[in-house]
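Key idea: predict the complex, not the pieces.
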Amino acid sequence: MIKLDIANAIMQAHPCSRATALQAVDLLTERMKQALLDGDRIEIRGFGVFEPRPRKRGMGRNIKTGDSVAIPKGKSIRFKPGKDLRAIEVG
Amino acid sequence: MIKLDIANAIMQAHPCSRATALQAVDLLTERMKQALLDGDRIEIRGFGVFEPRPRKRGMGRNIKTGDSVAIPKGKSIRFKPGKDLRAIEVG
DNA sequence: GTTGGCAATGTCGAGCTTGATCATGGAAAC
DNA sequence: GTTTCCATGATCAAGCTCGACATTGCCAAC
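Result:
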């Protein structure tokens, strides 16, 4: 599934041009990115929760040189699947 | 950020009633859930990638009894933040 | 206002995870 | 339809993180 599929979903819910739907998708992702970058978490009941989380590790490796490189501190985003997504049973 | 905020974002992109916006959000989450449950991964360039992943581990624990319990096989959803979200630097 | 999904707690183990680099496939933009 | 640009994959190593279970309280959702 790619952005176009999501745009199609929006078009189903609200008849409009594909361009408009794509704009909506872009705006959504933009808003979500903003929220996450802002440090806020996104909680959608029944779907999942996006949660920004600081990282601490610092050990990488260079394929070519095979040398270990220090990983600079940063943040990660964790997505916790909600109940509906946890409903995934024996695949 | 909760579902209402996302609905507001949609309303900004496409003037409509809050109910319609909420419907769009629900439809989106529904579609995404469907795709993930279907085993398909969602790839949004610049935002991130949702990827269903089978679990293998099998060691849990019971708080009360303190007894180890076998974790039933299942699946997990991994969200890989895209470049824009990796842009999170020193928080 | 009501409902009920989600968070936190705590343990313990093992698989998962990040990171750089280079080529390639494919998503996104034009 | 074409081009551009991003994500993936693989490796190695150390660390970290989920995973379930059971209860309580909060807050999202209706």
